[in-house]
Amino acid sequence: MFESDTLPIGAVMTTDPKRPARRATILVWLWLASDIAIALASLWQINALGGFGGPMRDHAAIELSDDIAAVTGGVFMLMFLLSGVAVLRWIFLVNRNAHQWSETMTISPGWNVGWFFVPIATLWKPFVGVRESWAATVSPDDPEAVTTPYWMRVWWGLWLATNVFG
């Protein structure tokens, strides 16, 4: 751990989540950009194959569209993996900090990340861990009194929607 990544809070050392949050945010934006790029490459490929009602292009144009689709697909997968790791690392750090501030936490940092990979439980358990971390961070002495913010419910709803329809 780098010295610049830690903050003294009383006698407890916690990891400052700001830098990992910035990294995760940048990588999520790059993932979104790569998703848009792969969509555009797919449209180009459909056009090259004559899927929009036009004539089918020559062999060279079809191969070029295949190559572009392969490159954008590779970049998309790389950005997906990097952003996923960055976001999960941030969730782990925030949960670990919350555990040091409040004794009411029920989901460990490891399980807050692990629940994303457990079928069925992934539908609600990661949200519970993030919500607990939020509440313990906002009010370590009385996290039960903290209401779940609207944006957190929207985030989780969008997460579920992308997993169902994606």
Automatic annotation (TrEMBL):
InterPro entries: DUF4328. Pfam families: DUF4328 (PF14219). Residues 58-165 form the DUF4328 domain. Keywords: Membrane, Transmembrane, Transmembrane helix. The keyword Transmembrane applies. The chain crosses the membrane at residues 26-48, 68-92. This is DUF4328 domain-containing protein. It comes from Diploscapter pachys.
